[in-house]
Design goal:
The complex is a heterodimer. By secondary structure, chain A is α/β, with parallel strands linked by helices. Chain A contains 14 helices and 7 strands. By secondary structure, chain B is an alpha/beta fold. In chain B, the strands form 3 sheets. Chain B has a 7-stranded mixed beta sheet, with helices on both faces. In chain B, helix 1 runs parallel beside helix 7. The chains are: A alpha/beta, B alpha/beta.
């Protein structure tokens, strides 16, 4: 039986035997976001996982503040901060295995770094010395994607291809609440469900698409409910609860791995910063709205639990802080160096073999560069 | 040794044979699109592929062009060589964002780390009596997008050879299939197909001395017909079949126009902002001192594609081509 045949019967039932093709009840998401931290279940959570998540979240927060600082120093063209969303970024990345693939959006640098990508390579796009600063196949991280939701069908195709080849690979595709309105979101989920591709879709509902609140984006009961229409399960999770996110993501990855098909997960979180450093959030939301989320901060929630269980003494706190500072210092030092640029690279990777037209244009640029160099030399 | 039969084959059959042979030679070649499986495609180009290779290799997808091309991107990222079918020219537009934002620039974006060997087959052009949205010539949109190759055959042999070359290419290729030539026939031996031409080479279909008709795809047979008719007027026209719009074969085109001193570009696509403008400019830049007359264009009108009962007035035909040839300032010679 081929993979495509496993999808079931091709022939519609003859009249009048029409019936629902799938029972929608098991596909429905939780009535409210799934939480672990602050509940009895948290007491049973693996202390090693809690400590790992805490260390990574603190590093992640520091990465965000450092990157934002680099925009002010002119070292980054722009930075869309994920401050407040570190639990989603990191717990999701940690739920993946070595062979799995991550399909990030432009706000998901942290997920890429948590997956082991060099923090500087992750910022190439936003520094602007090239578009993607790493080999996607080496890291199994697709390029940070700017056109919203367009990387979702890629995740589906890649996961489908892996399955056709008999490889054990799951693809995690990340998108925001605004991205769920895009046509590619719909097409990706539909293809994934029809093909039963091993994909996990994670929607970080951070409340805003730049300035537009969720109420203007959708009339769905929740974004997770959209899953039902495609015939895949939807899950609703507290996106600031790193343990819950990790658990729900791990379950979805496992389900995909076992041939259970795709899952749509909505993680409810909040974008604590403006859309990017170039945005002014005071034009569309109140400070009080942001303050209300301070108490539900992903690091605060995790530290409460760790303190409760006596897992976070002063030494540990210091070690975590120092680790984050070390990462930030290294990032700062390396980002403060001018990247090496070769303008002739512009022509190198357009086609496998340069066309005669591009060879002519490359010659033109080379002549311009030589003239520039000569003028510089004469000026000295 | 058995003698192989050379018999008439249609362009559609040659395209199908190219797909079949590519799939047989390379297990990473996958065909996907709307109705390409059980039905064999609305033009029957993929007929028999699902049966021979299974529906994992030739897949009927949901009806969503962005999804088809978007998932093909992911498949190519994983090392497959997808060939997608867009059912009709105008139905390919939903896939534009995937094409322009991802397919065309993934190699560049990743410094060559992740090229996308995807072939996008698009039946294009008019002349088949199609109702609205079934007859567009969309090549100018594709030509304007760096990172894509844009190829179109005009003969049965080229249909096979260029499609094999496109599938073998490590770059994305928009493969434009002239709909009205699907049923054109030629004697062709499917068991010993001609050498696969590299993409980017134009060919002189008819040698001549008076002027050059620069054309491609569905307009090639029209130009050949015009060249025959022109003999009565005393003009010996050369016909160049461009075959590949990107990359563009400046060498063959320049050599021809320098030889004849006159050129007319012929295509169905609208003239304003169409391929002919680019071609005429390239010819003028390279052949100015050899030209006896301005480079002219015979193109479709700059109108939305007309309804089928009026399309014959829109499509460049023999008379319109000869009228343009007549305007190439012959009086200067006499």
């Amino acid at each position: 039986m081929t993979v495509m045949e496993q999808r079931g019967a091709y022939r519609p039932a003859p009249p009048p035997a029409w019936q629902l093709r799938t029972d929608p009840a098991p596909l429905l998401p939780e009535a409210e976001p799934y939480r672990v931290l602050g509940t009895d279940a948290a007491r049973k959570a693996d202390p090693e996982l809690l400590l790992r998540l805490h260390g990574e979240l603190v590093r992640g927060r520091r990465y965000n503040t450092q990157a934002t600082a680099l925009t002010k120093q002119g070292r980054l063209a722009v930075y869309p901060s994920s401050t407040g969303q570190e639990a989603c970024e990191i717990a999701a990345a940690l739920a993946l295995r070595e062979q799995d693939w991550l399909f990030p959006s432009y706000r998901d640098t942290l997920a890429a770094v948590a997956r082991g990508l060099d923090p500087v390579a992750a910022l190439t796009l936003l520094r602007g010395d090239w578009h993607t600063g790493y080999d996607p196949r080496e890291h199994r991280i697709a390029p940070l994607c700017t056109p919203l939701a367009t990387q979702l069908p890629h995740a589906v195709g890649l996961a489908h291809a892996a399955r056709l080849k008999g490889d054990d690979v799951v693809a995690l595709a990340m998108v925001g609440d605004g991205g769920t309105s895009e046509g590619d979101f719909h097409e990706a989920l539909n293809f994934a469900a029809v093909w039963q591709a091993p994909v996990v879709f994670l929607v970080q509902n951070n409340g805003f698409a730049i300035s537009v609140p969720l109420a203007k984006q959708t009339a769905a009961p929740s974004l997770a409910h959209k899953a039902v229409g495609y015939g895949m399960p939807g899950r609703l999770v507290d996106g600031n609860d790193a343990v819950a996110v990790h658990e729900v993501l791990s379950e979805a990855v496992e389900r995909a791995r076992e041939g259970g098909g795709p899952t749509l997960i909505e993680a409810v979180t909040y974008r604590m910063e403006a859309h990017t450093n170039a945005d002014d959030a005071t034009r569309y939301r109140q400070d009080a709205d942001v303050e209300a989320w301070q108490d539900h901060d992903p690091i605060v929630l995790l530290e409460r639990e760790l303190t409760e269980r006596d897992l976070l003494d002063e030494d540990r706190r210091r070690a975590v802080r120092e680790d984050a500072e070390e990462m930030a210092a290294d990032l700062r030092a390396r980002m403060n160096q001018d990247p090496a640029l070769d303008p002739m690279d512009l022509f190198t990777h357009v086609y496998a073999e340069q066309t005669s037209q591009l060879r002519e244009q490359a010659a033109l640029l080379r002549a311009e560069l030589e003239a520039e160099n000569e003028a510089d030399g004469a000026g000295r | 040794m058995t003698t192989v039969a050379v018999k008439p084959a249609t362009m559609g059959q040659a395209l199908g044979r190219a797909l079949r042979d590519a799939m047989a030679d390379d297990p990473s070649v996958h065909v996907l699109g709307e109705d390409v499986g059980t039905l064999g495609g609305v033009f029957r180009v993929t007929d028999g592929l699902a049966k021979e290779f299974g529906d994992d290799r030739c897949t009927d997808t949901p009806l969503a062009e962005a999804g088809i091309l978007g998932t093909a991107v992911g498949m190519a990222m994983y090392g497959l060589r997808p060939v997608v079918e867009m059912q009709f020219d105008a139905f390919a537009y939903p896939a534009f964002e995937q094409l322009i934002s991802h397919v065309a620039r993934m190699r560049n974006r990743t410094r060559g780390g992740m090229p996308l060997p995807i072939t996008i087959r698009v039946p294009y052009g008019g002349g088949i009596g199609g109702v609205e949205h079934h007859s567009d010539s969309s090549e100018a949109y594709y030509m304007a997008t760096p990172g894509l190759h844009v190829v179109t055959p005009a003969t049965v042999e080229d249909a096979y050879g260029l499609l094999r070359a496109s599938i073998a290419s490590d770059d994305p290729v928009v493969f434009l299939e002239p709909k009205r030539l699907y049923w054109s026939k030629a004697d062709w031996n499917p068991d010993a197909p001609s050498t696969v031409e590299p993409i980017g080479k134009a060919v002189v279909r008819r040698a001549g001395r008076s002027a050059t008709l620069l054309t491609y795809g569905p307009s090639v047979p029209v130009c050949l017909e015009a060249a025959e008719a022109a003999r009565a007027e005393g003009w010996d026209l050369e016909v160049v079949d461009l075959r590949s719009l990107v990359p563009f074969d400046d060498e063959t085109v320049t050599a021809s126009v320098r030889r004849t001193g006159r050129a007319v570009v012929v295509h169905e696509s609208g003239g304003f902002g169409g391929p002919g403008g680019e071609i005429a400019a390239r010819v003028t830049e390279r052949c100015f001192h050899h030209l006896e007359a301005p480079v002219l264009r015979v193109a479709g009108f700059d109108i939305p594609y007309p309804p089928p009962m009026l399309e014959r007035h829109h499509l460049p035909g023999v008379d319109r081509i000869l009228d343009a040839v007549a305007r190439l300032q012959w009086e200067a010679e006499s």
